[in-house]
Specification:
The structure holds two protein chains of two kinds. Chain A is mainly beta. Helix content of chain A is 0%, strand content 50%. Chain A contains no helices and eleven strands. In chain A, strand 4 (34-39) and strand 5 form a beta hairpin. The radius of gyration of chain A is 14 Å and the shape is globular. Chain A starts with a strand and ends with a strand. Chain B is an all-beta fold. Chain B has strands at residues 4-7, 10-13, 19-25, 33-38, 45-49, 53-54, 62-67, 70-75, 84-90, 97-98, 102-106. In chain B, strands 2, 4, 5, 6, 9, 10 and 11 form a seven-stranded mixed β-sheet that branches. In chain B, strands 1-3-8-7 form a four-stranded antiparallel β-sheet, with no helix packed on it. In chain B, strand 9 (84-90) and strand 10 (97-98) form a beta hairpin. The chains are: A mainly beta, B mainly beta.
Chain lengths: 126, 107
Amino acid sequence: EAQLVDSGGGLVQAGRSLRLSCAASGFTFDDYAMHWVRQAPGKGLEWVAGISYDSGGLGYVDSVKGRFTISRDNAKNSVFLQMNSLRVEDTALYFCAKDSGPYWYDESGSDSFDIWGQGTTVTVSA
Amino acid sequence: DIQMTQSPSSLSASVGDRVTITCQTSQTIEYYLNWYQHKPGKAPRLLIYAASRLQRGVPSRFSGSESGTEFTLTISSLQPEDFAIYYCQQSYSTPFTFGPGTKVDVK
């Protein structure tokens, strides 16, 4: 069964860094793009970043550009989110999600997030 | 960025009811619209992709349709396990954006 397990969340002061990890199993990890999606307390879902199957393509929402870096290690079936210069507004439950295809953005528009982790909580204090 | 709205924001329904949730986009996205179900403390679940295609393993009581920039998720006969929050999401352009969600709870 395909599964994603998120980890690495915690309580951190504003301005500090945190690295999230997501371990995949049950599918051919290096065939698919991966993403991070977050949910702030009491809010809806927000796409944060995506990475293509071979790390050849990356994308970010504007609010995290220059601060967050998505990466992957296909040998370890894992995807990561390095979060630097954290802000109070980055406080959220962070989910990793598997793309239905190999590219983080498919110009055909056919991306969907078909497997999700249960999330890891990041709390940034002022 | 493409803006997404959903209506209603919440609804109360009973087991066996037919439930309809609407998602409106700020510009045309063809049929590149996905629907997800989310229960607190659990991983979100893909229900419908490309506006009307049922994800493998999802019960056939879930269906999706589109008309221009308006998309609809229908649950034909609500089951106890369907009480959750439902989100639409566009994959037409980046950044990918989600609707604000529709909470379906027990009447």
